[in-house]
Amino acid sequence: MTDDRKLTQDLALASYRLTRTLQGQTRGGALTGAQIAAMATIVHHGHIVARDLAALQQVTPATMSRLLAELAAGGMIRRSADEEDSRLQWIEATHVGAAIVAQENARRMAPLVAALRALSPADRETLARAVTVIEKLTVEIAQAA
């Protein structure tokens, strides 16, 4: 039987270390870490309301407003008013913005891709099953919050 406390700590630490390692790959890229995180979310959603983006990124609306101004000035996003509620601002990535996100993601993930390819088939299968469990845990934790 696995000690739940130790497993929790090991999982959190491994997740944190992997995330920090991959984030370190963004240095020297076209966008800052905050910009790439926001752009990746925008691209993932297709289009998103600015206040929802701020909530997902866990920043204040004022911080998100400044970030979106930078992205708009760089031609990475388009903003449009909601047709029914003028208080809402929809954000979507431009072709340029989406291409930069894809480039940055490929550059950042390249070391992980190489490491995964070096794993044995059995380890890759174990990791694939673990990812499914981690995604399930993430959803459960988020819903409980």
What would a concise description of this structure say?
With 145 residues, this protein is mainly alpha-helical.
List keywords for this structure.
3 strands, 145 residues, mainly alpha, three-stranded antiparallel beta sheet, Arc Repressor Mutant, subunit A
Q: How would you portray this structure in words?
A:
With 145 residues, the chain is mainly alpha-helical. The protein has a domain at 21-119: Winged helix-like DNA-binding domain superfamily/Winged helix DNA-binding domain (Arc Repressor Mutant, subunit A). It has 6 helices and 3 strands; from the N terminus they run ααβααββαα. A hairpin with a 7-residue loop joins β2 (77-81) and β3 (89-93). The radius of gyration is 18 Å and the shape is globular.
Indicate the mean pLDDT.
91
CATH homologous superfamily caption of the domain at 21-119: Winged helix-like DNA-binding domain superfamily/Winged helix DNA-binding domain
CATH class membership of the domain at 21-119:
Mainly Alpha
Radius of gyration: 18 Å
- Write down the oligomeric state: single chain
Please give the count of helices: 6
Give the helix/strand class.
Answer: mainly alpha
Helix fraction, binned, reads over 70%
How are the secondary structure elements laid out?
Elements (H helix, E strand, L loop, with lengths): L3 H21 L8 H13 L1 E3 H8 L3 H13 L3 E5 L7 E5 L1 H24 L2 H24 L1
Antiparallel strand pairs: 1-3, 2-3
